[in-house]
């Protein structure tokens, strides 16, 4: 069974550089052929993101919540993530992302707000129950010529963190009990 990966992009501009950064991160982090990737470009859903209720938005939220890995990417707006991404995340109840490993990503014009994904977006993802395996990733948009190299470094850091978490998970009582429990 393939790992389910999802990218959620909060850039109001469709098919943005922010999307490219997030896609490259997934490509560098996960082995080819081991995952199915869904991309949710919120710019394509602006007509209904503030509609309550919305079956379409509820379906998108559910698909993200069923992901093994979700990358939440946003350009930096006013030292934080966009309102578009916030509106999407506000649709989740408490612990609505439990079981999801989430990586917060920001893009920006310079390093002024490099801590943005770590201090602004990561706490929200944790509040929603997701596991964030390290610092958020910040990418300076002017470095697109070095995209592969910079993203590969970030992916290596996430992979090392996830490997350490897997080691701890393997040693926990709960993991051992769930592995030996009969399947109903």
**Oligomeric nature of the chains:** single chain
For the secondary structure, the number of strands is 5
Q: Tell me the helix content.
A: 40-55%
Global Rg? 16 Å
User: What's the shape?
Assistant: globular
- How are strands sequenced across the largest beta sheet? 2-1-3-4-5
List the uncertain runs. Answer: none
N-to-C order of helices and strands: EHEHEHEHEHH
Number of helices: 6
Secondary structural class:
alpha/beta
Average residue-wise pLDDT:
89
The biggest beta sheet is recorded as:
5 strands, parallel
Beta strand %: 15-25%
Kindly report how far apart the N and C termini lie: 19 Å
Pfam families: FMN_red
GO molecular function: oxidoreductase activity
Keywords: Flavoprotein, FMN, Oxidoreductase
Protein name: NADPH-dependent FMN reductase
Written account of the structure:
The mean pLDDT is 89. With 184 residues, this protein is α/β, with parallel strands linked by helices. It contains 6 helices and 5 strands, in the order βαβαβαβαβαα. Keywords: Flavoprotein, FMN, Oxidoreductase. GO terms for molecular function: oxidoreductase activity. This is NADPH-dependent FMN reductase. It is an enzyme of class 1 (oxidoreductase).
